[in-house]
Design a protein that fits this description.
The chain is mainly alpha-helical. The protein has 5 helices and no strands. It starts with 11 loop residues before the first helix and ends with a helix.
Length: 118
């Protein structure tokens, strides 16, 4: 299994799909996979659950694997992060924001925080 994070190891097909994917396309594509009740609580709890699964895998990596990150473990964590991204996207949209808006808001917040430290 390939490590999806290693861009230099993507197949030409994967690289093409990645180049074509933007946030709006991703958000629109999720609509066809959403069979949830569509409630705010559902997306928030789902995000917490998937994030927790990712964190638990990292914990077990250090507990059981002595911190040795293998491509298989990296892929497994990446798939869980994808699930967390799904819930994050749906939660953001339910709140009335796009992922792009959330990203920009976060950059502004971080910039303000950094400016306040100087």
């Amino acid at each position: 299994m390939r490590n999806p994070i290693a861009a230099d190891k993507l197949t030409p097909e994967q690289a093409e799909r990645l180049n074509e994917m933007d946030l709006e396309v991703y958000e629109a594509a999720l609509d066809k996979f959403d069979t949830s009740p569509g409630a705010l609580w559902y997306y928030a709890l789902g995000l917490a659950g998937e994030s927790g699964e990712s964190v638990d895998m990292v914990k077990k990596l250090y507990r059981d694997g002595m911190g040795r990150l293998t491509p298989l473990i990296a892929n497994t964590i990446a798939f869980e992060l994808g699930d967390a991204l799904w819930y994050l996207t749906r939660l953001s949209n339910k709140l009335g924001f796009s992922l792009r808006e959330i990203m920009l808001m976060n950059i502004d917040k971080l910039s303000t925080r950094r400016a306040n430290r100087a």
